[in-house]
Amino acid sequence: MTSEYNAAQRLLHKIKQSVSEFELNNTGGNTNVVEAAVAQDLQTLSKGIAEYRILGRQESNERKRKTMLDRATSMADDHELLKRRFDKLKLRKNERENYTQERSELFQGGSGVALDTAITVDEDAFWGRSERALDGFIAQGMASLDNLREQRGLLEGTRRRLWNAGGTLGLSKS
Question: Across the chain, what does the average pLDDT equal?
Answer without folding.
Answer: 86
